[in-house]
Design goal:
Low-confidence stretches of chain B: 488-499
Structural class of chain B: mainly alpha
Number of strands of chain C: 2
Mean pLDDT of chain C: 84
Distance between the termini of chain B: 36 Å
Largest interface: B-C, 64 and 73 residues
Helix content of chain B: over 70%
Mean pLDDT of chain B: 83
Oligomer: heterotrimer
Chains: A alpha/beta (323), B mainly alpha (499), C mainly alpha (164)
Helix content of chain C: 55-70%
Distance between the termini of chain C: 29 Å
Order of helices and strands of chain B: HHHHHHHHEEHHHHHHHHHHHHHHH
Chain lengths: 323, 499, 164
């Protein structure tokens, strides 16, 4: 018991002077709410490396997976707001979660200090390679004609392909595809490649090589501009479904009440990390989109979170409620 | 010859001074971390991923692959020495491997595992180089219905793992299936049997369950029966397998390599079935099946070869299709992506150096494992001499750290404590944990595939027998079940297999 | 909790229930299956076309209940069925307590306390344990773990919570 007490006192005493002006004085942990190896983890690791160099302290990625990312974000939201625990939130955890998790323990709009958008991975509509449609218009007509005979794959409840897929469904007139759940992108993609299912939506990084290799076909990318990774692929706007514009964005948040100077330091480090030529190249390779100057920083992120909540929550609630 | 040219190109890449060094380093670190009880291959790779960041892509991937083999083999070492499987495929190794260790034959078990793995790795490497592409197409024949039938077959296998009552083993498979249903429903997102505990919403993790039911429960069993564990300390026996033992192991290794290699290609984590299937085959065709579970050397040689062959061929869907068949491979995809190489069908043509370099490095990695591990066997076996009163707290602390670091969650440690208690009860009730773990691992996949198949067939059970591959698998499962249920058929069966 | 522990570890014996092993084993499965059926009572079964979340858990749980009942009945009929072995208190109590110590200390105080506490508590599971020896050994092991996991591998394990 004495040992325990001693340790408690010890760490309180140690923690006090570590605060304020010369932040950071010890490693920073960045919670990634998904397992290692996924798109959000990759983006976090790509920015964590230059951020460590810029801040002069290690930024260590801490994977806390579970419940569509909400487990990790719940923990991050409850961390001490001293800048030593930050997190990589994403479209799901900060835009869609309130619609899918009724017992969510945080409020995406009010429980965080927004630090800045990191990078987004655009969503692509893909289909099996011998799909009869050759472009998005034909695909929409096909989906309307097939009704519930069409099979749409997704990577499990609350995954990006799930929410973006539901959103697509609400925008396809006359279509009512049968949703086939998988336990992850890998198995879903596998069955799309082998033609067991007809189509799905997913992040560019997961499907880009399959498209290039001709194993699956792509109809449109849901961003305003074409992606340099797939320059021949039309945008949804060009292809005739302009209202379908989605990107799985990833952004750095701190817990609520982060001191202004700490926030500023982190923002500066994140911006420099995004402009680092090495990370730029890595983002380009995986088709990631880095925000321009007006998309960066806390206020822009806060606006994005609010607009995403306003868009996703009613749409997903309506779609899943109806089902 | 394309194959020769390609392999030559691959070895040209892999055999540079730097890459040999990285491969060795990867295998070495992977072995040393993977051997810690409670730290399986996934945890090991995730832990070591960042140290490869500064390297050039090919070197980094060669090193990661080395870490993977090392961790895999390190896990087998732990399974043999202290009866703690780091992942599902090592469960089988504990059955006879740990018994051998208890009889003072730990060195032999480790040696056979190393040599069998090396052989399997060599064959699998050649196999990948020669047949990787066409085999991928074969694997594409597997849809949800086929997978479901494969899982059914796997569950039938698992009852053969039992040493005691087959009936009780079947009950344990069911218990494993039941535990696998805990968590958020895949399709509707409803919470199932989570009792409102948030950490159960993604289901139970394999690590806490296996550590509790296998690892810690084993400690409790040892503490209850001090005589049993003293054997481990007193007799060490020879360090390497004898010529006779090696000869005895050749057929199981060949069969294991074949079975494991084949199952490993399947993109839906078929590799997990490899060791179980191999064990089943060895036990079924043995002249005296009662030796199994009591330290039969074939029960280590076959499954270990299957395990390594599967670990190798699991790269096929990743390298040729870009689709990771299991969690470890998903992590490799992440690692490759971070290095700017997104795995896909074009890696082979667009990045042949990387593709063939990696294949060549597979063989290199396997060779390194033997070089690293044969001398290490002496050290591992000496570790068994540490008094048990000091060994078990050490095992406990490594396990706790390992479990904690998978999700950085203390809740995982709590659930291990719970399963330790359950595991202790199971021992006392005369239930064996191995069939339960297999039921648990296959259960998740099985339900997923069952529901997908039913959705795709719009509710028709006929899908499982209309599709030829699925029908064949079900027939095999059914046949096995009958054989298991009718011991009187034993004689006849032995004649059939005797050739 | 430590009061109870002190009382426990002096008792050399365990709990012996004079029933056949399979009676207890069957009962255990009936309870587990029943628990799952009860917990999952609100889950929709769905249809064959769209299998619901409740179908598999309920089906398997019922099979366990039936299977457990058969085991129990067979054991009741068999007069020579093997008895249930003795449950010892000491091993399970201290091992589980040790794991719990680790779980509750790792994020609140850190590995510096969680490591030695877990090892020392757990070591009492064996009657051969000597306190001084274990204490020294646990500190060495914790130091080794900190060096390995924190220093060499840079894992986010709290050594001193909220500080390092």
């Amino acid at each position: 018991m004495k040992r325990l007490l001693g340790a408690v006192i010890g760490c309180v005493v140690f923690a006090l002077p570590a605060f304020a002006q010369n932040y950071p004085t010890r490693p920073i942990s960045m919670i990634v709410p998904f397992a290692a190896g996924g798109p959000t983890d990759i983006i976090a690791r790509i920015v964590a490396e230059p951020m460590s160099r810029i801040l002069g302290q290690q930024v260590i990625v801490e994977n806390v997976a579970g419940a569509g990312g909400t487990t990790g974000i719940t923990r991050g939201a409850g961390a001490k707001p001293d800048g030593y625990a930050i997190m990589m939130g994403h479209m799901g955890t900060h835009g869609v979660a309130p619609a899918l998790f009724p017992n969510l323990k945080y409020n995406p709009a009010t429980d965080f200090t927004p630090i800045g958008l990191a990078a987004g991975t655009p969503i692509i509509i893909v289909a099996k390679k011998n799909h009869p449609a050759t472009n998005l218009k034909e695909f929409l007509a096909w989906a309307a004609k097939e009704g519930n005979k069409a099979n749409q794959a997704y990577a499990g409840n609350a995954s990006v392909s799930h929410t973006t897929g539901i959103l697509l469904g609400t925008m396809m007139p006359g279509a009512s595809p049968t949703l086939v759940p998988y336990t992850g992108t890998g198995p879903a993609l596998n069955d799309l490649v082998s033609g067991q299912v007809d189509f799905m939506t997913d992040q560019i990084v997961n499907v880009v090589e399959q498209i290039r290799g001709g194993n699956i076909k792509a109809f449109a990318i849901a961003t305003p501009q074409r992606s340099p990774a797939l320059p021949d692929l039309p945008t949804t706007k060009e292809a005739g479904l302009p209202q379908y514009e989605v990107s799985a964005w990833n952004a750095v948040f701190g817990p609520k009440g982060l001191p202004a100077d700490v926030t500023a330091k982190l923002q500066d480090a994140l911006n420099k990390a995004l402009d680092d030529p090495n990370s730029k190249k890595r983002f380009d390779d995986l088709g990631g989109v880095v925000p321009g100057p007006d998309g960066r920083g806390g206020p822009a992120l806060q606006k994005l979170v609010e607009s995403e909540l306003a868009r996703w929550v009613p749409a997903i609630k309506a779609a899943t409620g109806k089902k | 010859m394309d194959l020769v040219n390609n392999l030559a190109q691959g070895f040209g890449v892999a055999l540079t001074f730097q890459n040999i060094g990285l491969c060795f380093l990867g295998c070495m670190i992977g072995t040393l971390i993977g051997v810690l009880p409670g730290v399986g291959p996934i945890a090991t790779i995730a832990m070591l991923l960042p140290i490869t960041f500064g390297l050039p892509p090919v070197g980094a991937l060669i090193m990661l692959a080395g870490i993977y083999y090392g961790a895999q083999y390190g896990g087998s070492t732990t399974a043999i020495l202290v009866n703690i499987p780091g992942e599902a495929t090592a469960v089988v190794t504990t059955l006879d491997g740990h018994q051998m260790a208890k009889q003072g034959r730990a060195g032999t078990a480790l040696g056979v595992a190393a040599l069998g793995s090396f052989f399997a790795g060599t064959v699998a490497t050649l196999f990948i180089a020669a047949m990787g592409e066409p085999l991928t197409k074969l694997a594409q024949l597997f849809g949800p219905a086929e997978y479901f039938s494969l899982m059914v077959m796997g569950l039938v296998f698992s009852t053969v793992l039992a040493q005691g009552s087959v009936y009780k083993a079947i009950l344990m498979v069911l218990l494993g299936l039941l535990l696998s249903t805990i968590g958020t429903d895949l399709e509707t997102g409803q919470e199932r049997i989570t009792m409102g505990i948030q950490n159960l919403s993604d289901g139970l993790d394999f690590t806490p369950l296996a550590m509790g039911i296998f690892g810690f429960a084993e400690i409790l069993r040892n503490l209850d029966t001090p005589e049993a564990r003293d054997v481990v300390r007193s007799a060490i026996g020879r360090l390497l397998p004898s010529m006779a033992e090696i000869k005895q192991c050749i057929p199981p290794v060949l069969r294991g390599t074949f079975i494991g290699g084949l199952l490993g290609i399947l993109p839906g984590n078929g590799a997990v079935l490899g060791p179980f299937a191999s064990y089943t085959v060895e036990k079924k065709i043995a002249k005296d099946p009662s030796r199994f579970g009591k330290g039969a050397i074939e029960g280590v040689a076959g499954p270990e070869s299957a395990n390594n062959a599967g670990a190798q061929t699991a790269f096929i869907p990743l390298l040729t299709l870009g689709i990771p068949p299991n969690a470890v491979m998903a992590l490799m995809v992440g690692a490759m992506t971070i290095h700017g190489i997104i795995p896909g069908p074009q890696v082979m043509t667009k990045n042949p150096d990387l593709f063939w370099g990696m294949i060549a490095s597979m063989w290199l990695g396997n060779a390194m494992l033997v070089i690293i591990n044969l001398p290490l066997i002496g050290i591992w076996v000496k570790l068994l001499k540490v008094p048990y009163r000091m060994m078990f707290p050490a095992i406990l602390i490594f396990c706790c750290i390992g479990i904690y670091s998978v999700n950085n969650a203390m809740e995982d440690v709590l659930s291990t404590a719970f399963f330790t208690f359950v595991g202790y009860l199971l021992i006392k009730f005369g239930y064996e944990p191995a069939p339960m773990l297999l039921g648990f691992v296959l259960g998740k996949l099985m339900e997923e595939k069952f529901r997908q198949a039913m959705i795709l067939s719009r509710g028709s059970f006929m899908t499982f027998v209309e599709r030829p591959v699925s029908a064949v698998l079900l027939a095999i499962a059914f046949g096995l079940l009958i054989i298991a249920a009718l011991p009187s058929m034993r004689k006849k069966r032995e004649e059939v297999f005797a050739e | 909790m430590s009061d109870q522990g002190a009382g426990e570890h002096k008792r050399p014996m365990g709990l012996t229930i004079p029933v056949a092993q399979d009676i207890a084993a069957g009962l255990f499965l009936i309870l587990v299956g029943g628990f799952f059926v009860y917990q999952g009572r609100d889950l929709p079964m769905g249809s064959l076309r769209a299998v619901g979340p409740g179908m598999l858990p309920r089906a398997v749980a019922l099979m366990l209940v039936v299977g457990g009942a058969i085991l129990l009945l067979m054991a009741l009929l068999d007069k020579k069925a093997p008895r249930l072995p003795t449950f010892s208190y000491r091993g399970p109590f201290f091992i589980i307590l040790g794991i719990l110590c680790f779980a509750f200390l790792i994020r609140t105080v850190g590995l510096v306390a969680a490591g030695p506490a877990a090892m020392i508590v757990a070591s009492y599971a064996s009657s051969e344990t000597r306190l001084i020896e274990t204490a020294i050994f646990s500190i060495i092991m914790t130091g080794f773990c900190i060096f390995l996991f924190k220093y060499l591998l840079n894992l986010p394990i709290p050594v001193i919570a909220n500080y390092w």
